[in-house]
Amino acid sequence: MTVLTSIFQLIFGARPSGAARRTPPQAPGQPPPSPPPQPAGEGHAGGVGASPPTPSSAPGAPPQEAPPRAEPPQAPRPTDAAPPQAEAPPAQAEAPLAPEAPPPAEAPPTQTETPAQADTPQPPEAQTEPSQETPPAQAGTREEQPTAQAETPQSPPAQEPPAQTTPRVEFSALTFPPKPAFAPLVTNEARAALFGAFEWTAAPTPQEPRAIRINGDWERQNIVVERIPQLAKALPAYSRMGFHKLAMPQLKGLWAEWEEAGLLDRILSYAGAYTPRTVSPGGSTLSNHAFGTAFDINAPENPRNQTPAAAGQRGCLWELVPIANKWGFFWGGHYDNKKDGMHFEIARILN
Asked: Could you report the per-residue pLDDT of 47-70, keeping only the tens digit for each?
């Protein structure tokens, strides 16, 4: 008996609290997996010291080994206490669910965005396509360049007509132009008879000592400023001329015929038209420029009081003179005394 009691004390005394734990209804739930004889022993936990089990245990020193087998059910009981710990692993299983690989799954979509980066390589492919298209584009430009070059030969012909007129005229055989059948207007009264009289006051300046100021409204009533297309073609810096309204049609006709004759390239410079001034500083004779009936061209090559530029010389105007006479202009190179090769003035009004 002492041996059995010591065994029971070893079994049951080691866990007195375990016996208290056996009392709760948890034991009925766990016994089903355990063999039937154990629940009976567990049911008699209160009478652990009773002698009746001695006969069954007496043959059973082996049953003494069985109690340690009964301990495995006790081990599941700590595991039963451990189930909360087993529940902790599910919590850990939920912990992997907490990170929820979906966000990393969203990271692969970012990898799908890297295909978008693959799209970025596609733009280079699009660039390679334009690069392939650029050769034809260059070929087109090459075709356009020949056409442009084909046009350039055409443009020289447009510029050549004046150039052709240069060899066309044989300066060696060219003679000085003859005087026209009409004479110039040399007095204030003769000019005023055609273009109207006005009162004036001397107004010299350091730049122009011959300058005057016209009184009254004669200038407003008689001087007009209009565009001369041929002047702009010959000298792009100039395009308009101030002239007397009665002589403006003849001025336009003169320049138009100069262009038709291919003589615009002979005009190298322009020195003005309407300019209120006298013929000489402090003088009383009015210049034709004061009436708006004269203009000057190629002044550097044809200075006043000097022989005009001759045939073959730069700035020669001989070829332009006959056409000017046709339109009622008198050339200053035909003056009897003081030559003025740059000067063209209206000497008569054409009907």
From this structure: 444 344 443 444 444 444 444 454
